[in-house]
Amino acid sequence: MDEEYDVIVLGTGLKECILSGLLSVDGLKVLHMDKNDYYGGESTSLNLNQLWKRLRGDEQPPEYLGSSREYNVDMIPKFMMANGTLVRVLIHANVTKYLNFKAVDGSFVYNKKKIYKVPATDVEALKSPLMGLLEKRRARKFFLFVQDFDESNPKTHAGMNMDTTTGRELIAKYELDDDTIDFIGHALALHTNDSYLDQPALDFVKRVKLYAESLARFQSGSPYIYPMYGLGELPQAFARLSAVYGGTYMLNKPQCKVEFDENGKAIGVTSEGETAKGKKIVCDPSYLPDKVQQIGKVARAICIMSHPIPDTNESHSAQVIIPQKQLGRKSDMYLFCCSYAHNVAPKGKYIAFVLTEAETDNPETELKPGVDLLGKVDEIFYETYHRFVPTNDGSADNCFISTSYDATTHFESTVMDVLSMYTNITGKVLDLSVDLSAASAGDEQ
Ligand SMILES: *[C@@H]1O[C@H](CO)[C@@H](O)[C@H](O)[C@H]1NC(C)=O
Ligand SMILES: *[C@@H]1O[C@H](CO)[C@@H](O)[C@H](O)[C@H]1NC(C)=O
Ligand SMILES: *[C@@H]1O[C@H](CO)[C@@H](O)[C@H](O)[C@H]1NC(C)=O
């Protein structure tokens, strides 16, 4: 391995694969290695045998669950917004041709002990049982404002300066009540906490608008899409892309030790006694444990069921967001469900997840309010994993480390981390002004 690479990427998780694909397209010489003999790292997808091996040890999966290879269970389950940033990245990188998407059936929010469809337009607001009569009218006015909003046209800003007006002030203007703010902030704008209320309202309005526009895109019950056969298809699509642009992939490379010069700058990676030279290292937290710190952990329940989540209008695929306040918690809880309709399980089977940022050491008790919403489950596994963030920013040591995946069941925070890493690695902002309709061929089916 005498040649020098521009970038050596360690780990084939979603974030690392997206980055190696984008960097390859930029013309950089990329070497991508993984200590595992499979794609995906923490964000891999498992068949039934692999799932059992990971969570039940030597036991065999019961026969009634059907064929192992018909399961594609994402370890990091996330839906993408149809017009969202990840879809723009996929179009920019031209990987949509390797992927086949299908719309997600439903998007729901939990409010006062019940599950409701998330209303996102003036018409839906008026129909929604989520709000009382007067509140419906106020919400309708708010949604009309968002629908008409055009950042470049101040006439649509309802007399507000969008850079100084806060989210809280905007909401006060429409006199929305706390429950409405809760679902708009967490289930439409996809904020994970309420700090947005004290930030300029522009970003908040754009997020609500993105939700409504994504919802309109495929005329389904949600703004989300998800690949057939699960997210495991994504790392592989980017690996193929990287290969087309000359990138090299190597799986099953033990150790993958990052080498540094006397100034603490990364200069390469050693595996099995051979060192590959590289100017920059991109990796997940497991490859550079000295440069990350633990910031929390995710508790999750992974379930196999024979029915959709109750009260979700028989949706084969659905997200339910339980805003923190509804359960008196500090973090939101998320329900994710997908089925054989997306080819992630055999006919008649559904895969469901309940996830949250852990606030205790007892996932079973903590996740109970979410698990109770699933009804009877065939099998359930509880798991907790630690979340790490880098303690460096790459400028001094040339090491660019991703943040561990959070508990959200959508891609918004994941893709923001990828874009920030891309900017720190390349010194430029990724141009995402793409033609969104380019993704439509694979989407509609
Ligand atoms: C709240 O969410 C924002 C992003 O929406 C994030 O930057 C911030 O760190 C979060 N704060 C807490 C306390 O989790
Ligand atoms: C339930 O789903 C059907 C399509 O499967 C849709 O036509 C209907 O509007 C949905 N109902 C609600 C309340 O979302
Ligand atoms: C990128 O660099 C900035 C500035 O040094 C830093 O604040 C940020 O955390 C870095 N982003 C990532 C994903 O490391």
Automatic annotation (TrEMBL):
GO BP terms: protein transport; small GTPase-mediated signal transduction; vesicle-mediated transport
One GO CC term on file: apoplast
One Pfam family cited in the UniProt record for this chain: GDI
GO molecular function: GTPase activator activity; Rab GDP-dissociation inhibitor activity
Record-linked PANTHER family: GUANOSINE NUCLEOTIDE DIPHOSPHATE DISSOCIATION INHIBITOR, RAB GDP-DISSOCIATION INHIBITOR
UniProt record similarity statement: Belongs to the Rab GDI family.
Function summary: Regulates the GDP/GTP exchange reaction of most RAB proteins by inhibiting the dissociation of GDP from them, and the subsequent binding of GTP.
Name by which UniProt lists this protein: Guanosine nucleotide diphosphate dissociation inhibitor
Name of encoding gene: LOC105172631
